[in-house]
Amino acid sequence: MLRIFVVLLLIAASPCLGRDAAARDTVKSGAFSMTLPLGLQGDSAYIPESNPMNEGKVELGKLLYFDTRLSKDNTVSCASCHSPYHGFADPGKVSAGVGSQLGGRNSPTVLNRLFSANQFWDGRAADLEEQAHGPLLNPVEMAMGSHADVVAVVKRIKGYGPHFAVAFGDDKVTMTRIAQAIATYERTVVTGNSAFDRYQAGDTSAMSGSAVRGMKLFHGKANCATCHASFNFTDENYRNIGVGMDKKKPDLGRYEVTKEDEDRGAFKTPTLRNIVQTAPYMHDGSEATLMAVVEFYDKGGIGNPQLSSDIKPLHLSAVDRRDLVEFLRALTGDVFNADPPGSFPQ
Amino acid sequence: MLRIFVVLLLIAASPCLGRDAAARDTVKSGAFSMTLPLGLQGDSAYIPESNPMNEGKVELGKLLYFDTRLSKDNTVSCASCHSPYHGFADPGKVSAGVGSQLGGRNSPTVLNRLFSANQFWDGRAADLEEQAHGPLLNPVEMAMGSHADVVAVVKRIKGYGPHFAVAFGDDKVTMTRIAQAIATYERTVVTGNSAFDRYQAGDTSAMSGSAVRGMKLFHGKANCATCHASFNFTDENYRNIGVGMDKKKPDLGRYEVTKEDEDRGAFKTPTLRNIVQTAPYMHDGSEATLMAVVEFYDKGGIGNPQLSSDIKPLHLSAVDRRDLVEFLRALTGDVFNADPPGSFPQ
Q1: Long-range contacts at B73-81 (CB < 8 A, ≥ 24 apart)
Q2: Looking at the partner chain, which of B204, B213, B329 has a beta carbon nearest the beta carbon of A332?
Q3: Which of residues 7-36 of B touch A (CB under 8 A)?
Q4: In chain A, what residues touch B326 (CB-CB under 8 Å)?
Q5: Chain segment A162-192, per-residue pLDDT in tens
Q6: pTM of the model
Q7: Which of A13, A107, A122, B126 could be A90's S-S partner, Cβ–Cβ 3.0 to 4.6 Å?
């Protein structure tokens, strides 16, 4: 599987000529090695020491990620709310779990989570392994009664045994291993080699003049890069831009985790890579389009600096706003390892 | 509502300067007038004489389009499978209706259906009005028992009465009127003013060099424009490109409607506008990404000319394929009238 993955990466990179190929990074974890698409930085990868990567874990994790049998009524998988066909997010404002029950926040993307430790909008999970435990039990998501139930379901599917053996050395099924495998698969779901990356690597024909102007605004007048920083367009930090803070009972985000006043209404800065694929936007899905998001920032958010501490009006022109959107569109790259499995263990 | 709509269109067009604004078309239907985004051609609009447009119908149709109470278990609306957050299509290979039952084909987009008479992948509905009748009763979609049941549900919601009165002159609820209103709303869901349209209108900074090369391939060597023709990138005709034709029991598409041998495996050419938003692709959702679609065509489809009569290998280079994808991405435009209603009649 990894062989195919690497070959795909090489094919995808070939149009970018020698210079780009030379600039591509590799992520290593034990004997495992993964060549990253153009534009991603291997030294920013976060892989817990307790869960080194290997091909078997990637393959097992992919099967588990897409397997609806891990939900109470066999209708919901990780991919239901983090769909490969929707930038590994969900087109609903919030997601529907078993019995069409709705969650409370917009599904964040799985893309490039390789470059992040803390997970969820409020960062309450220390890593992807911890994150993977949550939705399986959440009564409005996959609604399994307990982790023991999850283990029992996977054990009952005999065909999973050999996959655990390849991944972990023996076929013992545990919740820790299930989460480790899913997290390992998720770390391979990376996106890069966007028009922006190819432009950065020297191909001036990769971005339009409008997108180039937008890039300058992004780093300058529009002040986006303060939070949407570095190669993955996120500082992995928490900010209060005021979304929903004018509601009667606002979602206080990071505050619910830290109980620190400065975290009221703060949510994790999302990556902007492939952002055109993951509408709607904001932690509550309240903005339908990228232009609406740019307009939200332009007018200084909800217009109440007390409730929206981290932004202020930008005074952009209509052309500026259009150029910014075109730059955001130029962050759309190739996603590898995204095709659902052809079949599942029985 | 129309006032807001037109104002939005004007604001959106303003960055495109005078020349673009001058090139924009208008669609008229009785006293109703709708200014189209840049790049769309008003004289190609199809509005049945029996269902002239008016503001009231647009507003009523939008409410009905997004109202899940029109499905058997109150969980599914038109927007569930034709989501404004996913280019008015569905990120599933096929869509899930009530009780998570799966349909047989990938949901086609509602975008720019204004420019089409026949609807569905196989064109079995003569217009949007006829189309709107289908999913309401389809047992794996909205699963209402009969059209009388649909009418009864809408009648029971007293708040709909005044909306019917504004739209149709009196508050009588009929299935014909429900379908007419939904179709009228759908005709306002248009996309244009893409980077491509702005480039065509003289703004050379709107498209990247890569996308411009892709555009030339699109009309030349790659031969896309034969079927994906004209301003809406579709000839509204039916073609057999072989997708799924190597299966044991292939979906025969248009043949099921006409019983003409030449229609075996033929499906309607979809528009390519906003195509980056509507993954996965093909009538069965079998291709996950635009690059996969380009590669499918490049290798001549399923490799069996007998089963795939309308295409042949293209022999594109890797750079060609990348440029084609960048051109397809440049067809992403603004969508108006896409925000779900803030509240529903009670």
Answers
A1: B73/A100, B73/B98, B73/B99, B73/B143, B75/A96, B75/A100, B76/B141, B76/B142, B76/B143, B77/B142, B78/B110, B78/B132, B78/B135, B78/B182, B79/B340, B81/B107, B81/B135, B81/B141
A2: B329
A3: 11-12, 14-15
A4: 195, 206
A5: 999 999 999 999 999 999 999 999 999 999 9
A6: 0.89
A7: A107
